[in-house]
Amino acid sequence: MSEQIYLEKSLSAAVYPPLKRALGVVDTTLPMVAVDAGCGAGRDALFMVEHGYTVHAYDKSDAAIARLEEIGGRYIHQTLFPNVSCFEQFVYPRTALINACSSLFFCDPGLFASAWQNLTRSLLKGGVFCGHFMGPDDSWAKMGRGDLSIHTYSDIQALFKDAFRVIDIIEHNTQGKTLLGKPKQWHIYAVVAQKVL
Fold this sequence. Notes:
The protein has 197 residues and is of the alpha/beta class. 30% of the residues lie in helices and 31% in strands. It is built from 7 helices and 7 strands; from the N terminus they run ααβαβαββαβααββ. A 7-stranded mixed beta sheet has the order 3-2-1-4-5-7-6. Strand 2, helix 4 (62-71) and strand 3 form a beta-alpha-beta unit. The longest helix is centred in the N-terminal third of the chain and has 11 residues, at 2-12.
C-alpha cells in the first residue's frame, strides 16, 4: 500500500531542476533518445516525452512500470518504452540524455561500477547525464543498510573525470521529509554533466 501512495505522490511532485537544466545543455544535433533510469511512476519520463524525446524508462518495481503504462498510455511503444529492469541488467540504447534522479543510490554497491560503466558507455558525445548521488551524511546512509550506493564529493568527481564536462554538482545536506512524510536527513548531490569523449 505504501508503494502505491509513494508512486502517486511522486507524480504530483515537481520535475527536478537537474533534468530541466540538462534539457537546456544537451547537444540538439543528437538523436532525441533518452533513458529514465529508475523511473518510478514516470513523472520525468513523461516530461522528456513531452519535450520530444523517445524515452526508454525502467524501474525494478512492477507496480511503478504498471502505473507508468497506465498514465503514459498514448505514448506506449511509440515514444515511451517502459521496462521492468534494474541498473545492472538494463540494455541501454545509444542515447543523448540519461536521467537518474533519486534512483542511482538504490543500485547495489557491489554492482555499481559495472552498472555505471554500462550507463555512461551508452551516452553519446555531447549527451548529458543528470541525476542524484547519496552522500555519507544521509540518514539512510548512516543506517549501514549495505544495499545503498553512497558517494562522497571526491567519489563523484572521479566518476566524471576525463569523459565528462561537469556543469553542476549541487550539494543538498538538510533536514527534510520523504514523499511519505517521514522526517529524514537528506545528503544528496545533484549532478548535470555533458559527455565530451
